[in-house]
Amino acid sequence: MNRQILLLILVVMTSYLLPSCGGGSAAYEQSVNVSLRTWSRTDTLSFEVTVPDVFDPYNPLQAGTPYNVALALRYRPDYPCEPLSLHMRLVNDSVSYVGCSRRLSLTGSDGLPDGSTWGSLSTKQFDDLQYTITFPAAGSYRLLIWPEHEASRIASVTVSLFK
User: Fold this and answer.
1) Cβ 103 vs Cβ 84: under 8 Å
2) Residue pLDDT, tens place only, 9-47
3) Half-sphere exposure of 59 toward its Cβ, with a 13 Å CA cutoff?
4) Pick from 55, 90, 105, 107: CA 20 to 30 A from residue 83's CA?
5) Mean pLDDT across the stretch 64-89?
């Protein structure tokens, strides 16, 4: 019985720590862990995205539909907390599509960690990245994300795609 209660508490806490980006229902969402010690250009994160050729209620992504990209970063706040510059690019086996670079501030105007904090980690959501992905056809794609400079405080990156 105690194990069941502990498992329920863990599930509730995890859903609190990794909130969905954008406030609505995501057509796609995946989280990838990052080493808190070092995340460098050579440690590119790969988010596998499959676009079905027919409508699938379990995978609502559709070719030809534009999706806004949102990110949630779980990080350990350090002082001073420098902005994080990230690069993102969509690729498939033969084509590299338009990507973007964004400089993301993990602090508020007061210099303190921004977002929700639980324990030693904070979670900051970026819903307005102004990066839109349109899948040209059904198939398998990868959204690649890497830092411009070495980062040492990022615990995970969650990508969400919204209509």
Assistant:
1) yes
2) 443 344 444 444 444 689 999 999 998 889 988 899 999
3) 15
4) 90
5) 90
CA distance to 64, 91, 96, 156, 161, per residue, from 136 (Å) = 5, 11, 12, 28, 15
Do residues 36 and 153 lie in contact, with contact meaning Cβ atoms separated by under 8 Å?
A: yes
Helices then strands (H, E): number in the chain? 1, 10
Average pLDDT over residues 106-113: 81
**pTM over 0.85, yes/no:** no
C-alpha 63/C-alpha 136 separation (Å) is 6
Where does the chain show beta strands of DSSP type E? 28-33, 45-51, 66-75, 84-91, 100-104, 116-118, 121-126, 132-134, 139-147, 154-162
Burial string for 51-70 (b: 16+ CB within 10 Å, else e) reads beeeeeeeeebbeeeebbbb
